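Revision sheet: structure tokens.
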Amino acid sequence: RLGWLRDASGTLRPLQGFAANFATGQARESGVLSVASSGTWALAKTDRELIVFDPTGAEAGRLPAPNGSALFAFAVNGEPAAALFPDTGLLLLWSGGRFATAGWKTARDEEVLAVSGTISFLVRRGDAVWQVDRAVPDGQVTREQALPGVGAPTLLRPDGSILYADGRALVLRSPEAREQRVELPGTVAALNELAGDWVCARLPDRQVAVSFSSATPRVFELPGGER
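Predicted:
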């Protein structure tokens, strides 16, 4: 199993196989709005629940969640790190094998695009994207930095790199500001973590898996698109 995939109908399925030879497994959940996986653990959000899947693929937890989509983050070791519900600002942090509320919320008028487990956010302010770091105990801002050129959708990855869409391209910006760019067969509508160096990009008529594990990024079409 490479990771977990939400197909065009909103059904969650395990993604199996390897590059250029992917297949989806048996349906596990319907009505999924958001999903992300680290290659071991996976998180899925339905209209009213957050579901956690452990490295064996078994359901490890199910808890009530606000309506709407979710943003997910994983730790470097693949474990869940954070879940943010942008419509309400509710933030859950993973500790001791379970999620618990952070005790504070993000501002309702701040458009959060991505979250990392450290706790850091990518937010859109006007036409610019900013990285905003906050202290875990009280949510106080500890650092803010503008990110010129970064667009949405975007991901803040466990290693500190930033992945963002630039029209029909994906750009991976390392913490040292080096960039890798790969052209895609369509405009990027959404991004989610898939496994390790793999991410899933949703295009208007299909989904593709993109790997940044080598100097030249690789792109493969995934099953479950709308074509």
